[in-house]
Amino acid sequence: MWLRSRRVVTAKGVHAASVHVVDGRIVSVSTWDDASADVIDVGDDVVMPGLVDTHVHVNEPGRTEWEGFATATRAAAAGGVTTILDMPLNAVPATTTAAALEAKRDAARGNTAVHVEYIGGVVPGNAGELEGLRDAGVRAFKCFLSPSGVDEFGHVTEADLREAFPVLQSLGLPLMVHAEDPACLLEAPAGGSRRYLDWLASRPAQAERSAITMLVRLMERWPTPVHVVHLSSAGSLGIVADARARGLPLTVETCPHYLTFAAEEIPDGATEYKCAPPIRRTTERDALWEALLDGEIDLVASDHSPCPPAMKGSDGDFFAAWGGIASLQLGLSAVWTGARARGVGVERLTEWMSAAPARLAGLHDRKGRIAPGYDADLVMWDPDASFVVDAARLHHRHPVTPYAGRELFGVVRRTYVGGRIVYDG
């Protein structure tokens, strides 16, 4: 296959180029005129490395009625995502043993439209399982410092991590951390609440700062790579910068919803916006954008965490509803809409959503770039076109999303995985 565009994103920037693919790999990136007669010419559409989403809750097996591999990976393909990393919780069994990982793989086999990798879980008492999970092929580990919301994936204390960190250091894989200190979280009001600001107040930004401070303390003794997931407040980034200045391998992500929404705009009872940590105020959203543009935040991942509509709560109680936002299909467009409004070029999205996540997952030698030797995982999209999100047209299992009715820029035209088309308009 020969493919060409006037806007191909490579390490040299955005330029006209022809990409030659053989047997699922890129063999050359050359000038516009080098393509053969049967070239696929996409004109001015951007050709970018397929997105690598390192934070996806598929939930199969065990809770396939929430989301499964077939629906999740179709949504990924429609959003230009060519590789996902599946989180270890919400499935039953949770991916905390090598046997559970094999159950995940059995469920996925024959049901995926994009490439799938896996994350192992760190829970109280399973330090002895971590080497087996590494040997079985997980790309990273994940733990919660506050309750996860499901009984089969317990949250860890500092004492639990003191047992796990020496093992993790020897294994060399990153530990992804839901970083909220439970001691900083407030109890739900009696009878719950429909007020979004009550939910926001119950999970203050101090919870992130306290948790990250504890992680840095552990890294000083056992400098294993740690990755803070779904950062909601830029107020913790001074701690992160100081740790990095001292050579500690600490990375951070944020999510499209923290870059898109603001607490002041969320209606009471609108539990489709509920997530943890919560979506914060406009000043926090703007500070996250500033940190992302300055390189203080390494990457953007979806934290796609859907559930059946009934679990979002028909009564609008933020404390009773499931916390999670379905956005796997919309991440590229949501982030581009914010970037475009700030005068940011498409090449920055390639770093935030393709190259940096590939590095985190240890896939950087074959994914996240358009270059010879890399997998032909590609997305073609129109950055100048917009659309209004129609939840009924999403490929997620359940059409519940806070993006419904919102205009977004960036229309995905085609997605290729290993040179094979997996989504076409």
UniProtKB/TrEMBL annotation:
Entry-linked SUPFAM superfamilies: Composite domain of metallo-dependent hydrolases, Metallo-dependent hydrolases
GO cellular component, as recorded: cytoplasm
Ranges where the Amidohydrolase-related domain occurs: 46-422
GO BP: any one term: purine nucleobase catabolic process
Cofactor(s) this protein cannot do without: Zn(2+)
Top EC class for this record: hydrolase
Pathway note: Nitrogen metabolism; (S)-allantoin degradation; allantoate from (S)-allantoin: step 1/1
Subunit structure of this chain's protein: Homotetramer.
Protein name (record): allantoinase
Native organism: Gemmatirosa kalamazoonensis
